[in-house]
Design a protein that fits this description.
404 residues, alpha/beta, five-stranded parallel beta sheet, 16 helices, 5 strands, 59% helix, 6% strand, globular
Length: 404
């Protein structure tokens, strides 16, 4: 089974990455580890291979999976790069290859110190594979100062180093990064293809798989959760039930309270897990220093322990924001279906299981009103990125959905 098999509907991108992996194999055969990097060979546009890649595409299209599969193809020892059968491919896909590093974050931003650490190791020769590959997921979460740390490494890379950045759109990264990377753009796969993958890989019921794929708008991760995780399905149901029940301002306020209370509870559960992880990490550090739990913390460790606590709060914030954003996406998809019905467009509904409620609202309102509601939800998502209080944000958005 190829490492690219799970990239549903991305035939063009897969072909381009395989072509690059073949070129990389030929390039690696001519490398001398003691010689400087042949920049004319690795410069973007000089061949099918580049030292820096920017993988873009809509959420759920498989950006991170494409990056990992490409890294595996670069290390592959089979005749066809990325065949998935050799030890190198299996190690990369299993997240335990010493020469493939993934940088992701469950915080709001990626820290400059994290990137600086990887830049320092990027000039070392690979230990067991052919290339050192660094994958930065959610590259749009890098602040400008973090991006500047990475820029030097991309401008003057190690001779056998490849950087792979993932983000939704090319505009999400600074122009200096865009100009030094080669772009691979993924597309939104068909819901039917996602459903087929869920049936084949997860054993999901075909009908439920198709409903999940359409409800997730072909987001592979969300579709999998909706089809296999009852909690994820319950969040969507509660969100759409709340939208359908909004008629007055009071209904909107109560719905906002219900949804944010649910998010607060789930966020608190995540925060509690983070706190337990922090406590465990602190205990391990103290034990390594020969100190017992509860003992006076040495001055050298205090800043690290304080930073761990701050990160725990940031993780809770990120978790809550992600939950709110997902609910707003579900609401937007619902009114997208209302608009489709009003315009009598010949396209399938995203939320086919709510077809009756969609028809009722479509008959009682106008396309202009529906567009205003979609705009209000989009504005709420923009405000969410500005750390607005989620209760006020949700109330303001849902009040715009009331009957007029």
């Amino acid at each position: 089974m190829s490492v690219f098999d799970d990239l549903v509907g991305q035939e063009h991108a897969v072909a381009e990455l395989i072509r690059a992996a073949r070129a990389a194999r030929a390039i690696a055969e001519g490398f001398d580890d003691d010689a400087p990097a042949p920049s004319d060979t690795l410069a973007p546009g000089a061949s099918a291979m580049s030292h820096a890649w920017l993988i873009t595409g809509p959420p759920g299209s498989g950006r991170s999976l494409a990056a990992k599969a490409f890294a595996a193809a670069l290390q592959c020892t089979e005749d066809e790069p990325g065949a998935g059968q050799c030890a190198q491919c299996k190690a990369v896909m299993g997240n335990n290859h010493p020469d493939v590093t993934s940088l992701t974050t469950d915080l709001v931003t990626i820290k400059a110190d994290e990137v600086r650490e990887y830049v320092a190791t990027s000039y070392q020769a690979p230990s067991s594979g052919t290339w050192k590959a660094f994958i930065i997921e959610d590259a749009d979460r890098m602040l400008p100062r973090t991006t500047n740390v990475l820029l030097k490494a991309i401008e003057e890379p190690g001779p056998r180093t490849v950087w792979i950045l993932c983000t939704a759109a090319v505009a999400d990264v600074l122009p200096t990064i865009r100009s030094r990377t080669r772009n691979i753009n993924l597309v939104t796969p068909a819901a039917e293809d996602i459903a087929r993958l869920l049936v084949e890989r997860e054993g999901a019921d075909p009908e439920r798989a198709l409903v999940a794929a359409r409800a997730a708008q072909s987001h592979i991760g969300v579709a999998k959760a909706l089809a296999t995780d009852p909690d994820a399905a319950a969040v969507r149901k509660k969100t759409l039930d709340a939208v359908v029940g909004i008629r007055t301002t009071g209904d909107a306020v109560l719905a906002a309270m219900t949804l944010t209370d649910m998010d607060a509870m789930r966020g608190a559960q995540g925060a509690k897990a983070d706190e337990e992880a922090v406590e465990k990490e602190v205990a391990e550090r103290l034990a390594a220093m020969g100190l017992e739990s509860g003992a006076r913390v040495p001055a050298a460790l205090r800043s690290q322990i304080k930073a761990a606590g701050v990160d725990s709060k940031r993780r809770a914030t990120r978790h809550t924001q992600d939950l709110i954003d997902r609910e707003l996406i579900y609401m937007t998809s619902f009114y997208r279906d209302v608009l489709v019905t009003q315009l009598e467009a010949d396209v399938p509904l995203v939320n086919a299981d709510y077809a009756q409620a969609i028809s009722r609202i479509a008959a009682d309102t106008t396309p202009g009103t529906t567009l205003l509601r979609i705009d209000a939800l989009g504005e709420a998502r923009d405000r969410l990125r500005g750390n607005v209080a989620v209760q006020l944000l949700m109330e303001a958005a849902l009040v715009e959905l009331r009957e007029r």
